[in-house]
Amino acid sequence: MIVGIDLGTTNSLVGVYDSGFVTLIADEAGERLTPSVVHYPAEGEVLVGRTAVRMRTLAPKRTVYSAKRFIGGRVGEEEGRFDYPVVGQPGNPVRFRIGDVMVSPEEVSAQVLRKLKMDAERALGRPVEKAVVTVPAYFNDAQRNATKKAGELAGLEVVRILNEPTAAALAYGLDRLQDRARVAVYDLGGGTFDISILELNQGVFQVLATNGDTRLGGDDIDAALVEYLAEQSGVTAREERERRLADPSVRARLREAAVDAKHRLSEAEQVDVSLPFLEGSQSQVFVITRELLEKLARPILERTRIRCARALADAGLRADELQEVVLVGGSTRMPVVRALVAEMFGRTPNTTQNPDEAVANGATLQAAILDGALREVVLLDVTPLSLGIETFGGLMNVIVPRNTTIPFKAGEMFTNAVAGQRSMLIRVLQGEREKADDNWELGRFEIPFEPLPKGQARVGVQFEIDANGILKVLARDMNTGSEKVVEMASAVDVSDEAVEKMLEDSLEHAFEDMNARIYTEARLKAEEMLPSVEKALALVGDRLSAENIHAIRSAMEDVRVAMHSNAAQQLKKAAAILDDCTQVLATLLVESAMDAVSQNAGGVGQ
């Protein structure tokens, strides 16, 4: 039997498909949601879930939460204040110091997965060895591989890493919509945000576009409320407030109160917050209103607006061309989130599913499909190595990950990298290395299109593997509909020795390969961002303050310097700072474009 697991930042769930129904398994206390919190005591057994949550205020330095924000990441990539020590050299994998022991995010996640596995085995009365595990669509290869490793550490064979938006779409029953239906999945969890635009085609969801932020979620709203509570608890001087927040016990108490208030304010207009004996004999009681919470949350939530606009633009769609907008993630319970989504997409979002459970339900449905319990699926083989194409910069873009069950169909959208480009070379690759030239080439062909400005041509590339392992690659010019289909050799019939050698090489060169990818992607992003920012400044720069313009110009110069340094992390950090600096600028651009559309529409109506 294969179970479905939603490994979440804040909470995790496990489900099983039985007798025609999805059942989310409850723990011994009857709770389906398992907090993704792990407490490492100085002596005794590790605590996971609600028992660990209770230790967060008593022993904050030994209690790890939101580990998903770190999984597959490196030191220097994560920002924020956590109650437990995050250690390591910049550019190296993240570790948590628990007493004298170092623990990785994968090991923390494995503890959560192990508890879910035990709960499932207790409820089912049989061993559980296989699982479908979900990840944000915006997770990169390192984060996906780290999630899979966590499953292995927990004693689970992860038979499929499933994108959370696809899982949510399955849970909402969107696979029963008519073909060519387009759906937006707005997924705001505790630590990550995803916006995905999906299209249904012959029962298969194809991701037309995805965007998001792996470091944006309800945790950030909690942090803003913690800052406010620190101010309200009698601390006015910034130095004193920082001293108080630097105390893990005080910060943990404030965070616990903030999370509780946030949850209650989804239903109530105001709540009382009590902080007895916060420091010594000092106690505080005051009122938090929903209006205040929404004022604190709104700037954080506004960061999702530009991500949604970019995803729609990448998919070549307007908001009114969507058939559904669905909400996923516990943070979407907040009325301000639902109002913002309705405002952005011009329609009331679909809230028929429990947002905390939708992804787990979808993962369980996918597990049932793979297990043959839900519908007839031919499970003859898997892809032994990843399949993809070469993208600009000489990197391999994986479209079909290794160990994907066949038959299978998947695709992505690509654009022209150079203005005036007349065709795109589709170089089909197989392997596990980051650089295209380090993988095997299965074939190549060109798809012509009209010369257009950079990023305006859209080519959809689809990989289809039949039950015999024969790979067909389709490339379609989305502007004209013209397409080319090429049949490749078997993507499955590869000798064990060759597969083993490729996997060994990928492990041996993993660090240098990843550095090369990080630098190349950061350089390409920087080369695209700099002229775009210059153009945006020319268009709406007069609406910015001198301080904002100075910050943007300074960040642009830092990016230019980093581009010549050949240091991947330095360039990535500089580009991220520039991206943050230009959020206001990007919002102004979107507003300006909307104003222009409204004016044109008004002129036509007259």
Notes on the protein architecture:
With 606 residues, the chain is an alpha+beta fold. The chain folds into five domains: 2-166, Nucleotidyltransferase, domain 5 (2-Layer Sandwich); 176-216 and 303-354, 2-Layer Sandwich (Nucleotidyltransferase, domain 5); 218-296, Alpha-Beta Complex (Actin, Chain A, domain 4), CATH 3.90.640; 381-507, Substrate Binding Domain Of DNAk, Chain A, domain 1 (Sandwich), CATH 2.60.34.10; 512-605, Substrate Binding Domain Of Dnak, Chain:A, Domain 2 (Up-down Bundle). The strands form eight sheets. Strands 1, 2, 3, 4, 11 and 12 form a six-stranded mixed β-sheet that branches. Strands 15-14-13-18 form a four-stranded mixed β-sheet, with helices on both faces. A hairpin with a 7-residue loop joins strand 8 and strand 9. Helix 12 (510-540) runs antiparallel to helix 13 (546-563) and helix 13 (546-563) runs antiparallel to helix 14 (568-581). The longest helix is centred in the last third of the chain and has 31 residues, at 510-540. The termini are far apart. Residues 376-381 have low confidence and may be disordered.
